[in-house]
């Protein structure tokens, strides 16, 4: 398993899974991360360049997000260079999936630095995007059994019940240098779908689809 080179700047967020001394950084940051907490299964939605409010890592129960492994490097959205071959990257995640040892999941610049198991991994391919592999995954935090001494019976009685995460409209915050075609490539898998984004956000963007501004929040199809 190879170690990916981090090209992110000092103020940019990175998403990393560590297996012992080996680090795997996701080459493309997810736009949205859902974190399900232990108390009432409160769900916190994290959008790029938004506000982050994470409690202590020990309270996080499940972390889910989606992204993709690009075949070719693109400085507009790739956080590592060179990007790993998508098939090799998926094999690394599959190794994590079947591993019986906990990993460590870190989101730089936040309070998320927790031991986890990768419990769910789904991949897909999109027509016209030869070589790119899209995926969504679920991580579940791991705790040593000696941590939970008080109230362990109550926790056990509730362990079988789960609440579905709320579904919210996905948005994208425009960054400097963005264009609708770049956003369509990153979020929808094809730059040709820029018009779908424009139709949903014409009131925000205005009459010229080429004049999007940093800070605008666009609703994704």
TrEMBL record:
CDD domains, A to Z: LysM
Residue span, LysM domain: 170-220
Classification via Pfam families: LysM (PF01476)
Signal peptide: none
InterPro entries: Bact_Kbp, LysM, LysM_dom_sf
Segments crossing the lipid bilayer: none
Gene3D superfamilies, alphabetized: LysM domain
Family annotation (PANTHER family): PHAGE-LIKE ELEMENT PBSX PROTEIN XKDP, POTASSIUM BINDING PROTEIN KBP
Protein name from the UniProt record: LysM domain-containing protein
